[in-house]
UniProtKB/TrEMBL annotation:
Name the record gives this protein: GerMN domain-containing protein
Region entry Disordered, spans: 42-69
Leader peptide range in chain numbering: 1-22
Record's keyword terms, sorted: Signal
Keyword Phosphoprotein annotated: no
Keyword Membrane tagged: no
Matching Pfam families: Germane (PF10646), Gmad2 (PF10648)
Species classification: Bacteria, Bacillati, Actinomycetota, Actinomycetes, Micromonosporales
């Protein structure tokens, strides 16, 4: 009897569960990471490639054949001109408006001759008007000069041209059509024992004044002194050239002086005689001496 009740009770429970409403349901798809947003491409014309993005510090691209240096072309040009004094070459300088025809300008200035103050210091030119460079090929400039009877004058004139033109990096030698092309070494014997390249005649200097040049002097010792308008010695200095005793070397020395008022003066560069201590081989450069504080 108890078995029958148990069976009946189980059957009743199953029947009630089958008739109850279902409590299951869908929770939706499993969550996933958000898909990246891809921007739509911008049209730049048919089949045109999209330029890559440059870093912020990258230089802007330039068109082939152009340069974007940002450097302004200089408005002036300083020329080194070699004149003659006492049968020897002497350098000076000119500042002129810049030009691409530098060799033509240099020869024109050389033929024009020294300034009045340079002439007063003994400088002359032997180059005639109309001398020009016809071409420059492989470092050789071609110049034709009128023939002169005096061989000393002819050689000094050619030396003026050689030393003046070889200041430019495009010229190493000069062809005059009468012999092999010549360079500075071929006319080195026409230099005086002491050459002063700075300061130049009639230049204005301040203290300390820097004196430069080349020299072939005893024990390579180069001496300098500064004189005021009355010829009084204001300061002295000495230095050693890079070569001496039979060879030419460069020198550079700064000389400090004191002066209350601006005035004319002289820079003297010389050798001290090993015999009696006197000044020899003197080169005097007239200048304007600026006052010192």
């Amino acid at each position: 009897m108890s078995r029958c009740r148990s069976a009946t009770l189980i059957a009743l429970v199953l029947l009630v569960a089958g008739c109850a409403p279902s409590r299951s349901g869908s929770l939706g798809p499993a969550p996933t990471a958000a898909a990246p947003v891809v921007p739509a491409p911008t049209s730049v014309g048919p089949s045109a490639p999209i330029a890559p993005t440059l870093p912020t510090d990258a230089p802007a691209p330039t068109t082939p054949g152009t340069r974007a240096t940002g450097v302004a072309r200089p408005e002036t040009l300083t020329l080194e001109l070699w004149y003659v004094r006492d049968g020897r070459l002497v350098p000076t300088r000119r500042t002129r408006p810049a030009t691409v025809a530098t060799s033509r300008l240099a020869l024109a200035e050389l033929a024009a001759g020294p300034t009045r103050r340079e002439a007063d210091a003994g400088l002359v030119t032997l180059l005639p008007d109309g001398a020009e460079v016809s071409r420059i090929v492989a470092g050789v400039a071609t110049v034709r000069l009128a023939v002169v009877a005096d061989p000393v004058t002819a050689r000094l004139r050619e030396a003026q041209v050689v030393y003046t033109l070889t200041q430019f990096p495009t010229v190493r030698q000069v062809d005059f059509g009468t012999a092999a092309p010549a360079g500075r070494a071929d006319h080195a014997d026409l230099l005086p024992p002491i050459v002063v390249t700075g300061p130049v005649i009639a230049g204005r200097v301040t203290s300390p004044v820097t004196v430069t040049g080349s020299a072939d002097v005893f024990e390579a010792t180069v001496n300098v002194r500064v004189l005021d308008a009355a010829g009084r010695q204001l300061a002295t200095a000495f230095t050693t050239a890079t070569c001496g005793n039979g060879c030419r070397g460069g020198y550079r020395v700064a000389v400090r002086y004191r002066l209350s008022a601006e005035q004319s003066g002289t820079i003297e560069v010389y050798e001290v005689s090993a015999v009696d201590g006197s000044r020899t081989k003197v080169v005097a450069v007239p200048v304007t001496l600026a006052a010192t504080r």
